[in-house]
Batch of 3 targets.
Target 1
Amino acid sequence: MTTNAPVTSNQTSAPSRVYAEPHRWALRFWARAFRRFGRWLFITRHVKRFCRPLSLEGIENFERLRGRSALIIANHTSHFDTAIALGVLPGRLYNRTAVVAAADRFYTQRLKSAWYSLRYNAFPITRGGGRAALAYSEWLLQNGWSLLIFPEGTRSKTGDLLPFHPGPAILALGQHMPVLPMYMDGASNILPPKTKNSRPAAVKVRIGEPLEFADGTTIPEANRLMEDAVRALSGRPLPQPPVTTIELALAEDREPAGALTR
């Protein structure tokens, strides 16, 4: 398989944005072999050391992908999230998954960014880069790769799910990809924001049923369904739409269920 993938151009970039090209060598055989045989050393070992205990729910939903590529979406509270999410994937899915990473956070230093690409099969995406920033992601999906992506776009400082960015919904609809929702609870206790040293903590990972969108589904609709799926795995109630003045007035005039009327 060729790795001559399209990348976004930085000729018209805004000065405040960080643009970085993906390390296309990360898809070559030797790099894939490194990750496959180094998985225990660089992923599994750390997950077992710091996720104590680690409990999994919904692992049967991996089988519902039936070997297809997928867009794996997860909540984001810690830099340890990537290791946990990759660590719970079945081998076949792990071996063909790339990780979407913020260019301004992980791709500003040459050696560190190269290591991140090699270790996780990560690639940079420009925050606020618009549709053009999705070109490499689209190419990967078209060539049989799955993507691990955090739709919130940043780590939640409170643990509450942040609004999803539309990029993952655009990818799912445009490439007709199933979406596998995942929720990780406890990762923020291992490596909280603004800390450098990890510490053991209990982690629970829930994997939901794959989502598939019917033709005609809009980007906002898909975005809402994806956010609702991850939020449902968290066990927290889904946000309710605001009650309008008319609805409130009708509710006040309505007789309670089972009430006697004269």
Target 2
Amino acid sequence: MRRAFGTAAASAQSLSAGLCASLTAGWVSLVCMGVCSACFSAPTPLAPGLAGSVGMPHHGVQTESVELPSAGAGFVRYRPKGQNHWGRPRLVSALERAASAVDSELPGGAPLVVGDLGAKAGGKIPGHNSHRSGRDVDLLFYVTTPAGAPLRNPGFLHFEADALAVEPETGDYLRLDLPRQWLLIQKLVTDPELGVQFVFVSRPLEALLIDYARARGEPLELLYRAQTVMLQPADSLPHDDHLHVRIACSPEETQTGCSGGGPYWEWLPDPPPSVPLTPELLEAIASDEPLDPAESPSLAGSTPEGGGA
């Protein structure tokens, strides 16, 4: 069902800890600053191998991010002038594709309202514990009036198990637009470039969506994927007011510092094979030891040439 997923950021942390324990004080400062800072703040020239989505969603950063436009075919940003709409390029492009597909296949509806992604360089943003490494986005629900007329979602409204929510300023009821909401989820979980890891949503709303999809006769494989990735989080609010979509690290991103932070589903692309540690490779690594005693002066008891007593 699930494959173990390597964590490059955790490996870097472990490596730095081992180095720091064995080197002198001067080397400790240099190595720890270069390795650890790349994992837990902005990547630096001292760690050129870390780039893109670095670390985990709740403890990471990002480079080479792309900003979601303030509006496009089938979508608008909830905060048009907000600063936190930066994410991985494949996430931004997939959102644009999915919103456009919903708008074209079910015309006449209101646009998808997109909440926060992340900061341009990642890290913590207000109101979120995750959204730090470019792999998260909040999506407000598609809504209609109780009679079925599409409306733009005015905010983070809390929907009950009957698919209804109350707009607090007017007291009007709004209904979850199940056809458009299900179509959006379908487009996201089947996008070959995206790689959805989780869709955080409350259990009652997940049940409504899955029941709707079953009634439509959707393929079992699609139902399995959707039901697998949809989850009510245990460590935060139930997400009855929006979807929180998180994508998995791509196979390429795992080589440059991305840490999964969860399962890696069997339908996602296979991670690249590990390089076998052959005797020749181990010998090559050993021969490139930067602290080779043969090339370094002794740290204790040495005197300069010709400098006897």
Target 3
Amino acid sequence: MLYFVKTLSWRIGYACLMSALEGSNTMSKAKLGGRFTFPGTSLTVHRIGYGAMQLAGPGVWGPPKDPDGAVAVLREAVAAGVNHIDTSDYYGPHVTNRIIRQALGPYPAGLVIVTKLGGRRPPDKSWQPAISPEELTAGVHDNLRNLGLEALDVVNYRVMGSGHGPEEGSIAAQVTVLADLRRKGLIRHIGVSNVTAAQVAEAQAITDIVCVQNNYNLAYRHDDALIDDLARQGIPYVPFFPLGGFTPLQSSTLSNVAGRLGSTPMQVALAWLLHRSPNILLIPGTSSVVHLRENLAAGQLTLSPETLAELDGIAAEPVPD
């Protein structure tokens, strides 16, 4: 009974909060980097979203050390205007999606949840491919069940490859499975992740691709040509590890620019991505409300052409030991 009362209490409070926010004008689109609509869809999101991977426990395994804190981060993000959340059911596994459902369900109108398939987490905590038709289908049903949804807004096929960089090889079989699940109404839209330009083209020959998610940041710019090509097609590019991931960005240039602007280096790195191309959508992750607020504030940071040119040079700097 106590659990029921507590659950009812936070749901009522959350509903009141969302109602108040929907009736206010405090969440200007400029605050979160502007808006972008996924091509061929009615899904419009602010350009700064939220990546939920860090809500799971250490090593993206098991429950978080602070479950209440994880819920608070999600609610703070949505209260601030975030309407694009990136997740996967193999985070935890199953943990992150359940936290999202607990924190945000019933989901507010306009919230876009993007998940991904293609991986699994066995008991040894490793990251392994899960790419058979049976595994992909089971992954869709796991996401639906743990998120509490009847259909998934966007599903990215994540090529596990070698670490966090793409490698060539056909993905036609896996994309075809997702296209079939889309026809069955379980998936609304399809994207790809950790892919090469050739794999993007291969996927597009099978079905409409509404987003591409790859590793990209100030220091790792292998996808410059791909970003520009996708921009011409109106397709969003969503960089994972926009702040360097497990090895945070370190650069004296970045630190110096941040000091001049009165911002943090990570805010400048996010602002640079927003300036890099209008089709870039951000999903920085964190398990801290304070850090979340810092990330979202990057949308208000303006970088001059001179500053952008200075930051562009970071990709040529030697990697710190």
